[in-house]
Amino acid sequence: MDSLTLVCTASLLAAGLYWFVFILGSAEQKGKHAVQLSGGSIQRENVQENYNQYWSFFRRPKEIETADKVPAFVDTFYNLVTDIYEWGWGQSFHFSPAIPGKSNLESTKIHEQMAVDLINVKPGQKILDAGCGVGGPMRAIAAHSGCNVVGITINEYQVSRAKAHNKKAGLSHLCDVVCGNFLEMTFEDESFDGAYSIEATCHAPKLEEVYSEIFRVLKPGKLYVSYEWVTTDLYRGEDPEHVEIIQGIERGDALPGLRAFSDIADVAKKVGFEVVKERDLAKPPSRPWWSRLKMGRIAYWRNHIVVTVLEAVGVAPKGTVDVHEMLFKTADYLTRGGETGIFTPMHMILLKKPEKPQEG
């Protein structure tokens, strides 16, 4: 091979690597590049240790069943995964039904916009996003409804990411984000005109604790909608395969324990809500929500090569490969949960806080 051929080959390889690592952003909406992968608020030298700490929670399962342990458990998880989620999935950390003729991004926005349409709010009103992540749904909902959206997340790094995205999207005047625990919110009683949660309350050890808080901050007569992660009526606790799938989902997504679909309305009524509507948005005629996971297998292996190289050369912190591999295994459990029909991430429940009785 002559020198010119070597130079050309090297140039092509270099250009390809540059595109692969520096240009390639998230699957849907570039907000992170591979070389920017971090451990969130965790110092880079402590990422591996925190990954090991995350798994240690599952050796002490009782500790992730109490409200005082949940912040550390969930905060650690989101420090580890937020950058990878943004890079490989997008800014909306949830699923949506596949819609024929629509891209994943379009399907996701439609799923988010439906949530705010359900709670019947008007431009200028203030609504709560309980468990807002980096604010993908918040921005879609604010742009669609004209409402002022206040999001709360347990993770300080997600707050900074959400605020940066809000500013870049020109929506800072409609979107605000605070760091806090949605089990113990600092908002005043009856201060919101509506509320929603999109695949977020599954992180609560007891659903009644987060529902009680949302009930407290919601004005009388107003609506709250939640998309819940639950096991369906097809789940059998005596089936080893079913148990393996559900435990895999729980451990790979920082869940204290998945609830049964039949428990959701009972909990809502217990804290004082009226149930307006309830249904599984994943059921036909909806297309499989897990199809995006199956189609993303090639992208996973592509990304895993990038992550492995970046960690090896010291660009990504040590432990990033372990986190990425954990998420891939979890994606397989989620896919199996969808294909068997024993799990849904979009059990929708629409709730109303009763009006106050008329005096006199």
The SS-based structural class is alpha/beta
| Weakly predicted, low-confidence segments | 12-30
Largest sheet: 8 strands, mixed
What's the count of strands?
Answer: 8
Molecular structure report:
It is a single chain. The protein has 360 residues and is of the alpha/beta class. Helix content is 45%, strand content 16%. Strands 1, 2, 3, 4, 5, 6, 7 and 8 form an eight-stranded mixed β-sheet that branches. α8 crosses α12 (320-340) and α11 runs antiparallel to α12 (320-340). The chain starts with a helix and ends in an 8-residue tail after the last strand. Mean pLDDT is 89; it is low at 12-30.
List keywords for this structure.
globular; alpha/beta
Outline:
By secondary structure, the protein is α/β, with parallel strands linked by helices. The chain is 45% helix and 16% strand. The chain has twelve helices and eight strands.
Strands, helices and their partners?
Layout: H1 3-23, H2 47-56, H3 70-88, H4 104-118, E1 126-130, H5 136-145, E2 148-153, H6 156-168, E3 175-179, E4 192-198, H7 207-217, E5 218-231, H8 240-252, E6 259-260, H9 264-271, E7 274-280, H10 291-295, H11 297-312, H12 320-340, E8 343-352
Parallel strand pairs: 1-2, 1-4, 2-3, 4-5, 5-6
Antiparallel strand pairs: 5-8, 7-8
